[in-house]
Automatic annotation (TrEMBL):
<comment type="subunit">
    <text>Interacts with DAG1 (via O-linked mannose moiety). Interacts (via transmembrane domain) with FKTN; the interaction is direct and is required for normal location in Golgi membranes.</text>
</comment>
<keyword id="KW-0430">Lectin</keyword>
<dbReference type="InterPro" id="IPR052463">
    <property type="entry name" value="O-linked_mannose_GnT"/>
</dbReference>
<dbReference type="GO" id="GO:0047223">
    <property type="term" value="F:beta-1,3-galactosyl-O-glycosyl-glycoprotein beta-1,3-N-acetylglucosaminyltransferase activity"/>
</dbReference>
<dbReference type="GO" id="GO:0000139">
    <property type="term" value="C:Golgi membrane"/>
</dbReference>
<protein>
    <recommendedName>
        <fullName>Alpha-1,3-mannosyl-glycoprotein 2-beta-N-acetylglucosaminyltransferase</fullName>
        <ecNumber>2.4.1.101</ecNumber>
    </recommendedName>
</protein>
<comment type="pathway">
    <text>Protein modification; protein glycosylation.</text>
</comment>
<keyword id="KW-0328">Glycosyltransferase</keyword>
<comment type="function">
    <text>Initiates complex N-linked carbohydrate formation. Essential for the conversion of high-mannose to hybrid and complex N-glycans.</text>
</comment>
<keyword id="KW-0808">Transferase</keyword>
<dbReference type="GO" id="GO:0016266">
    <property type="term" value="P:protein O-linked glycosylation via N-acetyl-galactosamine"/>
</dbReference>
<dbReference type="InterPro" id="IPR029044">
    <property type="entry name" value="Nucleotide-diphossugar_trans"/>
</dbReference>
<dbReference type="GO" id="GO:0030145">
    <property type="term" value="F:manganese ion binding"/>
</dbReference>
<dbReference type="GO" id="GO:0030246">
    <property type="term" value="F:carbohydrate binding"/>
</dbReference>
<keyword id="KW-0735">Signal-anchor</keyword>
<keyword id="KW-1015">Disulfide bond</keyword>
<keyword id="KW-0479">Metal-binding</keyword>
Length: 279
């Protein structure tokens, strides 16, 4: 992970901090080999609660170390990042200032498989907090999240907590069509090799060194709502007397533009339903 992070264009080692949950010398020595700041802290809680407290301690410490930073980018140790990882956030972070209905910007697309996602310049809004490489605004953490963070006795997943309606408050996150992170970890508290193979392994991952994102302003709420409504109006009404499993349920379209936008609209609805189910 550290190799890919430092290889991404725009990486600044002075701005990277590795937080280690416990006093383990091996990972601390690795941070030194890379010339990075490594911080160990005493574990609090067990299992999911311990991970949750690790995140809180790391976020609080980061904003204390960098008192002038308006944002922090969170990356777990089992992720590779794309060459344009920092460029992606550089092009999108202004949206967090311009649109109060946005909660975060993530480098990860939960439904971004190799057979569904192919346009690295395309962005979406989704009704969840994807994580897996994301940018958090200082004011959101300090004014809302930090004081309400789950306490050590609560066996909650921090990311599931952040997706609760009373925490998210109807806000949405920006994600790319093609993910800027790739999950390679096959073992952990909530991970095994089977889940890695069936879910993460086939995710699309951008390898281009620089991608200019398209229509970034269209991600602002009002513009995005207009875009979605326009897609719905121009969409093809499917024959619901047929089973969705039939090959011709979604007919072939000769007009590529219309087909592409219909598919993007279908993906958008799929995101919402999936995240509401799991969240």
């Amino acid at each position: 992970m550290l190799r890919s992070l430092l290889s991404a264009h725009g990486a600044n080692p002075e701005m990277i901090t590795v937080f280690i949950d416990g006093y383990f010398e091996e990972p601390l020595e690795v941070t030194k080999l890379f010339g990075l700041r490594g911080i160990q802290h005493t574990p609090i809680g067990v299992k999911n609660a311990r991970i949750s407290q690790h995140y809180k301690a790391s976020l609080t410490a980061t904003f204390n170390i960098f008192p002038n930073a308006k944002y922090v980018i969170i990356v777990e140790e089992d992720l590779d990042v794309s060459p344009d990882f920092f460029s992606y956030f550089s092009q999108t972070k202004r949206l967090l200032e311009e649109d109060e209905t946005l909660y975060c910007i993530s480098a990860w697309n939960d439904q971004g498989y190799e057979h569904t996602s192919s346009d690295p310049s395309l962005l979406y809004r989704v009704e969840t907090m994807p994580g897996l490489g994301w940018i958090l605004k200082r004011s959101l953490y300090k004014d809302e999240l930090e004081s309400k963070w789950p306490t050590p006795e609560k066996m909650w997943d921090w990311d599931m907590w952040m997706r609760l309606p009373e925490v998210r408050k109807g806000r949405e996150c920006v994600i790319p069509d093609v993910s800027r992170t790739y999950h390679f970890g096959a073992s952990g508290l909530n991970m095994n090799s089977y889940f890695q193979d069936v879910y993460f392994k086939k995710h699309s991952f951008n390898t281009l060194p620089y991608v200019k994102l398209k229509h970034v302003d269209s991600i602002n709420k009002n513009s995005y709502e207009e875009l979605i409504v326009d897609m719905i109006k121009r969409g093809l009404v499917l024959d619901h007397s047929k089973s969705p499993c039939e090959e011709n349920f979604i007919p072939d379209k000769k007009v590529k533009f219309a087909f592409t936008h219909n598919i993007h609209y279908i993906n958008f609805i799929f995101f919402s339903n999936i995240f509401n189910y799991y969240g």
